[in-house]
């Protein structure tokens, strides 16, 4: 028995010594690596500032250039998000690898910290960044597109690390978080093209000449200074009969999506003017104000 | 000095195609022809030649401004087999109600037993092709090609006697391979634009030097290569460049100026410029009708005149030939011509 106990003690001591020695070696290894000091942190901040300035400079140059090339504007702007993510990615890689000189255990510790940070408070920020990467690679929309995102509609002016910036028709700047791409449908009106379909609706009464009204609306659309017609961007004028009125619908492309509302207004104004000259009348106001037709009546308000 | 009438140059293939369509018509196939070309590209020159070739078989009609009454497109009683019509872009106006004359004309043409050879401004044609699908009425469509350097040379020199023009080049006038041009760039915080130097490579000179052709090529060829490049193969523009550069009877390559227009226009001004380009020439009153009450046409035309893009003579607005290429590039970029 005594022999057996002695052997067990010996084994236990040997194991403990080995474990202690391994721990000591690891601690020595970790402590042997120079710690992150203030100079490293300042260097990291400097690199981030340089990356940010570089992105701003590239954004300024490309945006200025793209505004001068007309229809190719969107094609040029579409590289901006990719450049941003690449520059920030390279900066981060350089900071972690070359400035902080993180060893494998340090990287592991950093990952753990990052995981905890994401879990506790930065998960939305992380989701936004992943959303930004998905937007950049998958291109559901691009800078310059007009999109519906959540409750907002507007022209995409920037796809950043965290948010997509939209300018609404009322000139409000909206920052929509990138993670919305995972939870909400995004509708792009032009899918990277400068032209965009605009639907213009006008209403006439039953006694008016619908054929003439269609002709006028068609000519109003195709003679507009904002129109764009091609094989891929055709125009059409449709008529639909309702119990108390007739609806005319012109579907045509505006040559630059920035003129969407001007195009709509130009076609409507000129068509209504011509309707008036040709005795084509709007539906009776009383009918439009009747229950259920409020939506239409609203369109005729000055 | 210049001869009154110049021989036609550079349209041999087009004339063969037109004559083939006429021959087809004589044997029972009615093939209406549309000739399309940008302003000054020789459309009328070709029509004149076709008239000359088919003398006594042709009734010729021409419009000098927008057609407003159906009476203006009625065909004469003594109508010959071939009907030649130049400047057909005047059959429409870009406004509501501006297509009815064109519709009447197309109806008249399709119901007639004659062959119609029509000539159109290229940009009007492209617009009508998209908007009213006009191409379906014209089975034969001929787009006039750009003139080659030799065509331009022949076209210009046919106006002079042999050896009448002296082509001279001084050594110091040789063109540089790289030229520095300055372009103003507006930076928001600064009030005044900053001139940023751009390097412009003269590819023709570079090509000549690289392939060591410079010593073998004659001054005459240098002159016409330069004119062909600047005019982009447009014979009308080439003639204007020639006239501006010629110090009779001497012409020097160094005296042939490159045209550069830095076009800065708002949308309305660009649209009006596009209408003028599409019509070739248009009356101020007709432009006012197109614009309606949207904005003042006088201010717009003033801006276009100020930038040297158009000229106005007796109330007729036309594109300046030397600005043609810059205007086309600008309007295509803005999608105001297609």
Tags for this entry?
heterodimer; A: 302 residues; alpha+beta; Alpha-Beta Plaits; 2 domains; 5-stranded antiparallel β-sheet; 4-stranded antiparallel β-sheet; 9 strands; 56% helix; 17% strand; disordered C terminus; B: 338 residues; alpha/beta; Rossmann fold; Arc Repressor Mutant, subunit A; 3 domains; 5-stranded parallel β-sheet; 3-stranded antiparallel β-sheet; 12 helices; 12 strands; globular; disordered N terminus
Structural topology:
The complex is a heterodimer of chains A (302) and B (338).
Chain A: H1 2-32, H2 38-68, H3 73-77, H4 79-99, H5 104-138, E1 146-149, E2 152-159, E3 163-167, E4 173-177, H6 180-183, E5 186-188, E6 196-204, H7 210-222, E7 227-228, E8 236-241, E9 246-254, H8 260-277, H9 285-289, H10 294-299
Antiparallel strand pairs in A: 1-2, 1-5, 2-3, 3-4, 6-9, 7-9, 8-9
Chain B: H1 12-26, E1 33-37, H2 43-53, E2 58-62, E3 82-86, H3 100-111, E4 115-121, H4 122-131, E5 140-143, H5 149-157, E6 166-167, E7 178-185, E8 194-201, H6 203-210, H7 219-231, H8 235-245, E9 250-251, H9 267-279, E10 281-283, H10 284-291, H11 297-306, E11 310-313, E12 316-319, H12 324-333
Parallel strand pairs in B: 1-4, 1-5, 2-3, 3-4, 6-9
Antiparallel strand pairs in B: 7-8, 10-12, 11-12
Helix pairs in contact in B: 5-7, 7-8, 9-11, 9-12
């Amino acid at each position: 028995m005594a022999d057996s106990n002695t052997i067990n003690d010996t084994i236990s001591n040997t194991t403990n010594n080995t474990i202690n020695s391994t721990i000591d070696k690891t601690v020595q290894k970790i402590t042997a690596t120079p710690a992150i000091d203030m100079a490293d942190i300042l260097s990291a901040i400097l690199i981030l500032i340089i990356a940010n300035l570089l992105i701003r400079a590239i954004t300024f140059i490309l945006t200025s250039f793209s505004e001068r090339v007309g229809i190719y504007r969107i094609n040029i702007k579409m590289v901006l998000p990719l450049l941003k993510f690449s520059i920030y990615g390279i900066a981060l890689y350089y900071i972690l690898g070359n400035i902080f000189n993180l060893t494998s255990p340090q990287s592991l510790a950093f990952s753990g910290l990052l995981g905890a940070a994401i879990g506790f408070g930065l998960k939305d920020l992380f989701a936004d960044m992943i959303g930004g990467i998905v937007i950049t690679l998958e291109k559901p929309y691009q800078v310059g597109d007009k999109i519906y995102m959540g409750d907002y509609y507007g022209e995409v002016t920037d796809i950043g690390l965290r948010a997509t910036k939209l300018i609404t028709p009322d000139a409000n700047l909206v920052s929509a978080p990138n993670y919305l791409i995972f939870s909400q449908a995004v509708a792009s009106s032009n899918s990277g093209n400068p032209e965009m379909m605009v639907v213009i609706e006008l209403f006439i009464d039953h006694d008016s000449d619908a054929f003439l009204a269609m002709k006028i609306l068609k000519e109003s659309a195709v003679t507009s200074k904002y129109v764009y017609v091609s094989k891929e961007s055709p125009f059409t004028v449709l008529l639909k009969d309702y119990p108390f009125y007739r609806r005319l619908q012109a579907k045509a492309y505006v040559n630059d999506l920035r003129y969407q509302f001007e195009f709509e207004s130009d076609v409507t104004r000129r068509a209504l003017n011509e309707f008036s000259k040709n005795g084509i009348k709007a539906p009776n106001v009383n009918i439009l104000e009747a229950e259920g037709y409020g939506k239409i009546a609203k369109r005729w308000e000055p | 000095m210049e001869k009154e009438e110049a021989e036609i140059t550079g349209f041999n293939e087009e004339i063969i195609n037109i004559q083939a369509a006429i021959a087809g018509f004589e044997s029972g196939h009615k093939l209406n022809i549309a000739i399309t070309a940008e302003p000054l590209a020789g459309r009328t020159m070709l029509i004149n030649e076709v008239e000359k070739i088919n003398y006594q078989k042709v009734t010729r009609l021409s419009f000098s401004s927008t057609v407003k009454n159906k009476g203006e497109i009625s065909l004469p009683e003594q109508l010959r087999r071939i009907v030649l019509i130049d400047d057909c872009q005047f059959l429409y106006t870009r406004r509501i109600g501006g297509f009815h004359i064109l519709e009447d004309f197309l109806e008249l043409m399709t119901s007639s037993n004659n062959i119609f050879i029509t000539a159109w401004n290229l940009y009007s044609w492209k617009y009508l092709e998209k908007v009213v699908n006009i191409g379906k009425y014209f089975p034969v469509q001929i787009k006039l090609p750009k003139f080659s350097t030799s065509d331009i040379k022949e076209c210009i020199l046919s106006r002079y006697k042999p050896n009448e023009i002296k082509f001279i080049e001084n050594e110091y006038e040789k063109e540089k391979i790289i030229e520095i041009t300055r372009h103003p760039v507006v930076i928001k915080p600064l009030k005044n634009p900053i001139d940023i130097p751009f390097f412009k490579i003269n590819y023709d000179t570079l090509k000549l030097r690289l392939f060591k052709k410079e010593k073998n090529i004659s001054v005459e060829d240098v002159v016409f290569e330069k004119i062909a490049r600047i005019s982009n193969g447009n014979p009308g523009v080439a003639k204007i460049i020639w006239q501006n550069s010629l110090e009779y009877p001497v012409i020097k390559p160094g005296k042939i100026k490159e045209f550069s227009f830095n076009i800065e226009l708002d949308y309305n001004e660009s649209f009006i410029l596009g209408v003028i380009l599409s019509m070739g020439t248009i009356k101020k009153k007709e432009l006012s009708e197109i614009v309606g009450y949207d904005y003042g046409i006088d201010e717009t035309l003033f801006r276009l005149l100020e930038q040297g893009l158009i000229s106005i003579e007796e109330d007729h607005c036309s594109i300046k030939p030397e600005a043609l290429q810059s205007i086309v590039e600008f309007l295509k970029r803005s999608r105001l011509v297609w």
